[in-house]
Structures are given as structure tokens and as C-alpha cells.
Sigma-70 family RNA polymerase sigma factor (Mesorhizobium opportunistum), 350 residues
Amino acid sequence: MTDAPGPLEPLGSTDRPILDRPVFERLTMAHRRELKLHCYRMMGSLHEADDLVQETFLRAWRGRAQFDGRGSPRGWLYTIATNACLNAIKARATAHRILEEPARPPTEGRAAAGPAAELSWLEPYPDTELPDLVDGEPGPDARYETSEAIRLAFVAAIQLLPPRQRAALLLCDVLGWSAQETAQLLGGSTASVNSALQRARATLAKRYPTGRPVQRSQPSRDESVLLERYIRAWQAANLDGFIELLRDGATYHMPPWRDWYQGRPAIHDFFRTVWGNFAGYLPVATRANGQPAVAIYARRHQEPEWRAQSLHVIEPADGGIASLTVYVGPLGPDLFAAFGLPPVWPGSNA
């Protein structure tokens, strides 16, 4: 198997074990972030990705004698990681995570469905954990730009694929591996991989007219202005100012609640029912899935501390917000640690 995801510098001379402990530690450091991102795309879970990267390195260390140095260490690690993900998916109750329940219509008015702890919800991914996008460019056969393949909507879309189709699409269309190399990893023939790819692409085409998400540009001045306006609206508890930032057909999801909303009027009507639940909001800018994001701390009436309340992931489009995913309690506050944020904002009176 060639080093399909990209070149790797030689790890050592051939007159000593290629994967002795110092070399193995350097290998894990070099590829930890990209393998974690690969596991996240496969699983839809930040926490599962952490566990699977650790499992990958443990398996690699225990099986290092099987690596003879003739192939790519990077490709070898991707093989272990992908198979670990497939095994983990097979062992859990559901094969994919969701941002919304399939076929559930948008809600109008007050949220009534409530949080669904029994469902597996897609988690956001901190930009601070992304690999270096310059060194991690996909191979020549990739169909997706690196930046679009980390978007929350893309990860949600590929979660609809059966696990082996998901793996084939990620390895071929995202990382740029050949069908032959992917077949060696997954087991089976090149023809079976090409068939899996065709089915996976057909599924994505049903969700996206072009078969792929709308490609977004790198963060721009307009995106920065949008984020600043969003933060100011929440700081001032200005509901109308917040709604003005939404595009006409914007969608709003709030995992782990089943309810979701579409369009400015519906989103406004919902927020009007909950906006006064807190005495104030303290927004903190961050980034998730290559998109602008905001962590909201809230202060309850007659309570002094600002506590983690929700994590907002923004999908910008044409100067406004096309989609807003807000992770609320109990899921939202539990995500703050992964973004390097405390449960209580420093300086508040605990």
C-alpha cells in the first residue's frame, strides 16, 4: 500500500527496528490529529474518536512486528484506525449519529418533544484539534476539499451511509486513496469498493443536488463581521438583532432536543418562549468543524455565576446564517471541556 494520504519522511535506517519506541512515539505525534479526525468522521463522536485513536496506537504498538518497513507507516495506521472504527460501530446500538430525527417535520412554537438521551447525536469538532491543513492535503483522487470535508453538515450527511460505504468514501473521496488501496484495507475487491463508492455518492446526491455540500471559502471579513454581530446580539440579549442575522430559510437544530425549526418566523417564535429563562448571556468566540462557533455562558435570575449553557455552531452563507446548530443541556455544557472552556466562567462569584 502506498502512502496515499501524503508523503512521510523516512523514520529510520534499515539496520535497526523501524518502530522502536522513540520512532513509534514520533510517528504517533506526527499523525495523532489526522487519525483522530478520521475516526471522528467515521463515528460522528469526538469522545469516541479520542478513545479509538488511543486504541489504534495500542494495537499498532502491540502489532509493530507485523510492520516490515516496506509500506507506509501512515497507511498502516489508517488501516488499524479504520478497522477499529468499523468494529466499534458494529458493537454499538446504532451505526450513525444524527443532527435531526429522520422524517421528523420542523416544530412550530414551543419545543415539546424534549431531549432524547436514547438517540446518538452528532458532536461538534474543535478547530484546535484539526491537523495542519497544508500538510494534510488530500491525494489527487480526492473529490472534496479538506475544508468542506470537516463541515458539520458533511459529517452529518456521511453518517447516513452504511459503515463500509462511509469508510470507502472517506478513504477515496476525502483522503484520495485509490480503490485498489482501499480494497486492501477493507478487504474485498477493487470492484466492490467502486460499487460501494457509487452507492455512497448516490446517497449524498439525494441530500445535495450536486452530490456534495456547498463549498465555503476560507474565513473572510464578512464572516468575522457576522460573528461579531452575533456575539453583540447575545451580549445585549437582543432577540430581534439575533433573528436579523438569519437567512429567510435558515434552520435551527438543538441537540439533544428532538425539535428543530425552519425559517425566521418559526425560529423567532421558539426563542421568544425561552429567551427570558436567563438573566443574561456571556458569549465566547471559538470555532468548530471549520466554522465560526460561540460558547454561551448564562446567568440565572438571582444567581451570580456564569455557567456553561450552550455551544453554537454557525453555517454562514451570503453574509447571514444559513444553519445554526446549538448544543443545549445536558449535551451542550458537557462539550465545553473539549473546547478548552471551563464549566463556570472565571471571575464569576461561585
Notes: The mean pLDDT is 88. The longest helix spans residues 21-43.
